[in-house]
Design brief:
- The complex is a heterodimer.
- By secondary structure, chain A is mainly α.
- In chain A, 77% of the residues lie in helices and 0% in strands.
- Chain A has helices at residues 9-40, 55-82, 85-117, 125-146, 150-178, 198-247.
- Chain B has ten helices and no strands.
- Chain B is an all-alpha fold.
- In chain B, helix 3 (41-62) packs parallel to helix 7, helix 6 (87-113) packs across helix 10 (190-217) and helix 7 runs antiparallel to helix 9 (168-183).
- Chain B has one domain (2-217).
- The longest helix of chain B is centred in the last third of the chain and has 28 residues, at 190-217.
- Helices cover 80% and strands 0% of the residues of chain B.
- Classes of the chains: A mainly alpha, B mainly alpha.
- Chains A and B meet through helix 4 and helix 5 of A and helix 8, helix 9 and helix 10 of B.
- Chain A: Keywords: Cell inner membrane, Cell membrane, Cytochrome c-type biogenesis, Membrane, Transmembrane, Transmembrane helix, Transport.
Amino acid sequence: MSLWEYANPKKFTETVTPLIPWVLGLAAICLVASLIWGVFFTPEDYRQGATVKIIYLHVPSALMAINAWFMMLVASLIWLVRRHHVSALAAKAAAPVGMVMVLIAIATGAIWGKPMWGTYWAWDPRLTSFLILFLFYLGYMALWAAVDDADTAADLTSVLCIVGSVFAVLSRYAVLFWNQGLHQGASLSLDAEEHVADVFYYPLLVSIAGFVLLFLGLVLLRTRSEIALRRAAALDRRAEARAAATTGEPA
Amino acid sequence: MRALLLRDLRLAVRAGGGFGLGLAFFLIVVVLVPFGLGPDRALLSSIAPGMLWVAALLAALLTLDRLFALDHEDGALPLLATAPLPLEGLVAAKAAAHWLTTGLPLTLAAPLLGPLLALPPGAWPWLLASLAIGTPALSLIGTFGAALTIGIRRGGLLLSLIVLPLYVPTLIFGAEMARRGAAGLPIGAALPMLAALTLGCLALLPFAAAAALRVNLR
């Protein structure tokens, strides 16, 4: 019994279908619980006031925006090395979810930034890197949409994802070099030097768990529908070929 | 490889090759900027290095879609791919030809256009140096993008969507180097970073572009 057995599309679909409602349900519970806990049962920050509560959406979505790209990179590498179609489709399925995560992070950041920094947007390194990440997602999705042949599209987007990852990291450091930051340091890190206070920390953890589950559920759901679409397209082609064969016309 | 390079150069220089097109586009962008911003010399001179860099980048982008497309259309590309030259070498030769026909002329033309944007006189050696070091990276990244989008009809728009985000680090380091040079500040890390970027692109991107070409020629 190895993990690679799930690379079989049929096995994947059969395993995943009963899981999806549970994953999404758990995500909903985590998100609702953390938001209620965070919004109504934690104190206001002494400097930021009530605006601090946007952290429960902003930090998890930003985290998932980066991890989604990372997941796409891993899935692309698996596709290039082991040629498992499910892997390529999972990368395709994750891209729009990751892009929406970037948008949520940027939008919540802008809403918070107006009262706190006095501006919706500043050319701060973190903000700028996220905008660039957004453009990478757009290019990746556009390439998937533009190539007709499924395997060619999977190969090309995988190569783009790998090269794009390198350039995304490069851009991150280039942007740091280019402008000084306005954004605060890491909200979460393993050393407790830079850290949010514990009252905000625990609901934040629940909210992050909710976002991870939401991402997982959506990606599984979308991968399953991509597999179904692929199968439908293959059946269509087969039916056309059969019709052409019976009428005696070349396909 | 040399034969291929010479062939591409000859094709580019002769009629319809688009050799002058990039340069003319560069000139037009530089001329349009003062119309958009007003003729204030202080403002223009402060944005001149960055504007020249952005214009050079756009001009380099403009000529990318014909990099492989013409060979692909007339069927020369599969022949070139079956030649004894490895595909990586083909890509490197294409990138070199692109740089010699756009990057190099742009670099040489940039100081001449400097006075139009009130570029300070001390700045042009830095601008020249930053463009000379940075434009090969633009050509290499562009070759990769062109190799990715070769099979797509009307892929020009997609090409720019894919390539422009990849241009960000080059633009940042190149424009920063030119800006610091223009302001008389120490150059700092910008020059080594820009050079490292170009060399890294030269070492790695031909492999990525060749991989993309192989997929597209399959």
